[in-house]
Give the backbone structure.
Amino acid sequence: MARTKGKSTFPNAVHLTVVSVPRAARFYAEKLGFKQSGAWPNADQPVFAKMVLDGQVVMLGELPSLVEAKQMGLDAAELDVVKQDARALARGTPGVGVSVYLQVADVDRFAARLKKRRVRPLLPPKTQFYGARECAVADLDGYRLVFYSVAATASPGAEG
């Protein structure tokens, strides 16, 4: 993990295509406790938002129309990818089959905060055989977010 003046920088990030960035960013901030650290083109009408939880980044973005993609300067190959993504999104829910793992200091405390914010877990906190204690929720676009912390006692031979 990269460090700057003793402080961790964002080691990696995931980008999720969402239906509405303002709606998704509100959910991540109000319900899950993320902080918004950037938006494009502006904070009032974002089509992209950078959300941070304990130094981990989840980027939220709307799929641009072809007109918007051309205005952003995408080349022919990039426009083809936008077209492919648009067709795939039109066929079903964007988040199906995607799980994003985010580490928190104490998953039980984190799950209790989620409950107070009326976020219903898909799976309550449970210690897994590979040494992580996990709690899973679904965001508004169907992405599965698995919040985890290292279990107090990992199972013998657990890998992870």
Remarks:
- The helical segments are 21-31, 66-71, 76-91, 107-116.
